[in-house]
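Lecture notes, structural biology module. Today: joint structure prediction for complexes of two components.
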Amino acid sequence: GAVVSQHPSWVICKSGTSVKIECRSLDFQATTMFWYRQFPKQSLMLMATSNEGSKATYEQGVEKDKFLINHASLTLSTLTVTSAHPEDSSFYICSARVGDGYTFGSGTRLTVV
Amino acid sequence: GNSVTQMEGPVTLSEEAFLTINCTYTATGYPSLFWYVQYPGEGLQLLLKATKADDKGSNKGFEATYRKETTSFHLEKGSVQVSDSAVYFCALRSPVQGAQKLVFGQGTRLTINP
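The predicted structure, tokenised, for the full assembly:
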């Protein structure tokens, strides 16, 4: 079936640095990708929707200059957390629309120290 | 706006027990409804779905029926196994044409003891 590979699975970075998270669709073309953030014991919060070749659509309250999303090809979407701070520590998950359904990456645990 | 409310966890059961995880939603019209499961260290996987009222989704012994009158989509399984231990998410997608994003409930952590 359709598989989305997300890397890294975990990352620790220093405050003020930037971190890039990649999601690749391995056996299909992902026209639309979704990026979620999951806080401990809480639900997935949609951050943005990205369509290949166009600018991402951010949800209300999400800083687009802080969470940069690039979807330059049909098999790769990236989320860059710029100038990360401890409050950005979270679990980030990508998802791709596949037909009438969705497939999810395995998530990235970001810890900012 | 659209929202999903799930039964709070964690839920702990013994093997072969009956499982119910409640899910109710708020939405205009007839949204599509989903249950996803997240095993430790893995991404979310679709467990089952229903797209219209009275539809029953089923998979791996799990079932959920789309109840419009009670705006519910409760997940049930007659006899759980240790391997069912995971986090379960109820979700909806708006019926508005072109809508793509999913709205998730808060998730319910299920632990099955042998």
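Point to remember: The first strand of chain A starts at residue 4 and ends at 7.
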